[in-house]
Protein: F-box associated beta-propeller type 1 domain-containing protein
Amino acid sequence: MDRGKKPSKLLANKNSKNHMDLQDIIRESALPFLPAKSLRRFTGVCREWKLQISTPFFAHNQSYSFRDVSGFFCQSPSGALSFVSLNQMAYGVPDPSLKFLPEPVDIRCSSNGLLCCQGRTGCRAYYICNPVTQKWKKLPQTTANHGTDPAVVLVFEPSLLNFVAEYKLVVSFASDLDGYEFEIYSSIDGSWRISAEISFGKMKLLPRTGVHVNGVVYWSSSMGRIFSFDLSCERSTIINNIGSSSLGAVNGKLHTACLLGSKLSVSELSNAYTNTMQMNSSAKQWQVKHAVTLNFSVPDLYPRSYDKETVLFLGGDVVVIRHEKKLISYNMKTKEFTEVITEEDTYSRMVPYVNSLVEI
Structure:
């Protein structure tokens, strides 16, 4: 009988060790890849997980590891703010109204967990915040007048080497010289400066279309072309577009998503310099990477208003489409569709957001 009990105790000890090993693997290798809302819920699993998730090092690691679009900050014509989650169990923020900020704001843009807002009173200051941690920073007053609906792009690329977020805010504004100039805020310098670059032409930028891809900022224009500003050399160029489409970053390259009727196509900018090549060159500027037929159709209205764009977001493996009171997420890798019902279809602004613990 005694000999029969010993193997049972050894087996129990072995199973207990395997359980602890699995807990360590999950804590160290899986948790950093989860969104902030899920992590806040997992702090109740055990004391070790709570301590792990609460450390600044873990927040830094999570902000680097988790990059998936989680939902949209929405603003109604009256200014009311809300958050539409693409997965209510996984993604969310404590206060979608952003009342932790010192004044009412308009949402402008976001980048990898940081949200850029602009005050609605006084000098209309810019704020950079993380809605999960409710920490924020008020930027100094700008040098130039950016107008009532500025063309703003927040540039933040998480790095394992930087424990505090280093970001830039790039604004293209109308110049007195009948063109566009650029004012740039750097979190490292803590100040604004106006670039020497001036882009001339009759093209009008569409303010809420800006994206950042691999060191270059892009905006759509009213003439159906793409306006780019290279941050490394601070030079602007014009790129031919393929119709009315939304811009986004996929695998470190600029992509466009275009929805005509029930046909969704995603194209990659393979060569931005075809306008400088020989006339008979076979090089193509855009290459279609994905094409899919949806089970619904969108009226083909032209010209489209940029604040009513059907394709709301393009990035990573995901395209998010607005259709009536639905947000439809399409995963280009798995070919799967996910639907989310929104409260209304009259939002004046919808800004994509990543559910991150990034520190400001």
In short: The mean pLDDT is 86. Residues 36 and 243 are 37 Å apart (CA to CA).
